[in-house]
Amino acid sequence: MLSTGPELRLLRLLSCVTLVLLFQVTDAKRDLKSACTTCQQITDNFSKGFDRTAKQNFGGGNTAWEERKLSKYETSEIRLMEIVEGLCESSSFECNRMVEEHEEHFETWWFKRKTKHPDLHKWFCIETIKVCCPKGTFGPDCNACVGSSERPCHGNGMCDGDRTRGGNGKCSCNHGYEGESCLDCIDGYFNEVRNDTFSLCTECHSSCKTCTGATNQDCDECKEGWEEDEQEACVDVNECSTESSPCKEDQYCVNTEGSYSCKACDRVCSGCTGAGPDKCQACASGYQDAEGTCTDIDECSQSESVCTKEHQECVNNKGSYVCICSSGYEEQEDECVQMMQPEQAEESEASETTTSPHGEL
Ligand SMILES: *[C@@H]1O[C@H](CO)[C@@H](O)[C@H](O)[C@H]1NC(C)=O
Ligand SMILES: *[C@@H]1O[C@H](CO)[C@@H](O)[C@H](O)[C@H]1NC(C)=O
What we know:
Blueprint: H1 5-54, H2 64-74, H3 77-85, H4 93-101, H5 103-113, H6 120-128, E1 137-138, E2 143-144, E3 157-159, E4 171-173, E5 177-178, E6 184-185, E7 189-194, E8 199-203, E9 208-211, E10 219-222, E11 226-228, E12 234-236, E13 251-256, E14 259-264, E15 287-290, E16 293-296, E17 312-317, E18 320-325, E19 329-332, E20 335-338, H7 342-355
Antiparallel strand pairs: 1-2, 3-4, 5-6, 7-8, 9-10, 11-12, 13-14, 15-16, 17-18, 19-20
Helix pairs in contact: 1-3, 1-4, 1-6
Bound molecules: 2-acetamido-2-deoxy-beta-D-glucopyranose (2 copies).
The site of one 2-acetamido-2-deoxy-beta-D-glucopyranose (NAG) has 5 residues, from loops.
């Protein structure tokens, strides 16, 4: 039988609970990492504050009295308070909470531990409040990262949670490397040096997809656009040498390493083998071959005139020609008619008024 109503509801409730739990777990992990970051900032700011206050309360004189006053200030509660006050930006909730929660630890360190444990980050963040781990270690118990704590991820990646009480210690490898411990090379890279703890991956020759060495003879497989020659080396495929060009009709083909490109023919060509008016396969209309170069045809100087109407003139242009009316004539309804001179225009107007007084304006 299929699930009934109440069973389904229970199932949904359970999956909700699981989701909430999952979120809490990932949240907590992120919190552990950020808690260490906050602690690191606090101890960094502590050293800054320590340096800043070193110059304070020093009048510039060097009397014995001033010396004494200074050495007293150096280890004083007042100086500690001045440093602690400057640890957090007032807007940083996390920082202020951490400092407030652990204020007594700063006092303990300042008065009792400073000499024996001069590294505040180590004493406070790692050993006392336990939000950070030593370099190369991660997680609640500060376990060593993959590889070793000296060389996390064998020096070829970053260990998740490194130096914090969070993370899972997994490696995210640098470019060129892969695998759980970042000893393997990605496609396009090969192991130049490799043993159980050390790996150096180097990029293959540009003709290889995969390889075992640096030259084009060390390819396992050629990259697209390259092919194996008789010596089993990967060499460029000349896409332009094939009988049918991979380019469009009004383009010519240019071979490149591993590929090719198509470029537009000169406008005087109808098809071409290269750039310029002398590389045409045929001339475009309006052009003719003159000693191997396509040149404009002057339609106007041909024996048979092309502009046939009365008072028309021919004007040549690149690839064609136009017919225009001669000067003093203008085109009206496809004919070239004489333009009226200003006085002629007045005259005809005057005659019009006399002949048809009721004509429209
Ligand atoms: C504390 O450190 C943080 C990060 O390094 C910085 O942005 C902030 O300005 C510092 N606060 C003070 C008061 O120096
Ligand atoms: C691995 O190779 C590195 C670099 O060549 C070398 O320093 C290291 O001693 C080698 N380790 C082993 C276990 O052979």
